[in-house]
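Figure S7 source data.
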Amino acid sequence: MRAVVMGSGSWGTAVAKVLADAGNDVVMWARRPELAEQITTGHENGDYLPGVTLPANLTAVSDPAAALADRELVVCAVPSQSLRDNLAQWLEHLSPDAILLSLAKGVEVSTGKRMSEVIAEVSGFPARQIAVLSGPNLAKEVAQEQPAATVIACVDEDQAKRVQEAFATGYFRPYTNTDVVGTEIGGAAKNVIALACGIAAGMGYGQNTIATIITRGLAETIRLGAALGADITTLAGLAGIGDLVATCSSPLSRNRTFGARLGEGATLDEAQAATNGQVAEGVKSCRSVRALGQQHGVEMPLTEAVYQVCNEGMTVQEMAVALLGRSPKPEVYEGRG
Ligand SMILES: NC(=O)c1ccc[n+]([C@@H]2O[C@H](COP(=O)([O-])OP(=O)(O)OC[C@H]3O[C@@H](n4cnc5c(N)ncnc54)[C@H](O)[C@@H]3O)[C@@H](O)[C@H]2O)c1
Ligand SMILES: O=P(O)(O)OC[C@H](O)CO
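Tokens for the predicted nicotinamide-adenine-dinucleotide complex:
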């Protein structure tokens, strides 16, 4: 396919490499001309993926019109809270038949909308031209060609298959799914749970605690997904438990790392300053994921606790006390209403 990756952060760059390795004609868009130049001539993105040699035929430009001209697959690789504004600027340059593929794992704070909903609203494109990619995909590991799988979700299965084919390489295995809601909720919610895991690890707690948070995090993600109309089997797959385990367990995760700094005693500002400009989506999305839960009467205690720490001044010690002090529950309950 003729593809463009709009955004040259760590995941956008790794995804562009996968697409190029899979034989597609790929261009990247970078906001900064000097980064576009470094990718095109130096075959590296030193700010985000240092040490990774990019394919020689992968080029980048800083002019969105040039990047988008005549592209069949438009990969949206900017952070979730900036997607609306960016897409509005790209709109006039989009090919009318293009597939818009979202990589972002977040829920818009100002509207509570998932990324595919934002894309539909801004672009006016039909659902069959909007897809999402989500799974256990730490950018650095994918860029190093370590084996991994992902999910391409689109309501139109044939379109999902087209995108699947474009992404298939010897080291990256895409699966398809028509459950866009479940795929997106899995990706957004796991970032919030990874913050909680990081906090626990930073406080010195071990694997029993981490496993408990992952498992109970999955439980509240499933409750939210069910309330929003997701197929809960999606959350038992790569975009659910798969991504949750990868993100909550890996020191490469920005969300887990951000949480670990909080658990070690850093302030929010100190943790933010240490991100090197990279996005930890859960810090903002804890607000919108919590709001979705509240709107739908879904109990989400871990999300609530992370929200309180990130927005209301709760300390990590108070968070632990609040979570452990909750009333006794059966393990399986609906948790709504
Ligand atoms: N990094 C990963 O391992 C990974 C894996 C899967 C999914 N994701 C998701 O992909 C999305 C993008 O993440 P990333 O890892 O590439 O982020 P990043 O922080 O590495 O890079 C973000 C990119 O977007 C640009 N950007 C930031 N704010 C912008 C704005 N307001 N307007 C335009 N561009 C802006 C930055 O310059 C940078 O090029 C996120 O939603 C993330 O959750 C990341
Ligand atoms: O680094 P994070 O925390 O944004 O997580 C990266 C990916 O989403 C893992 O699948």
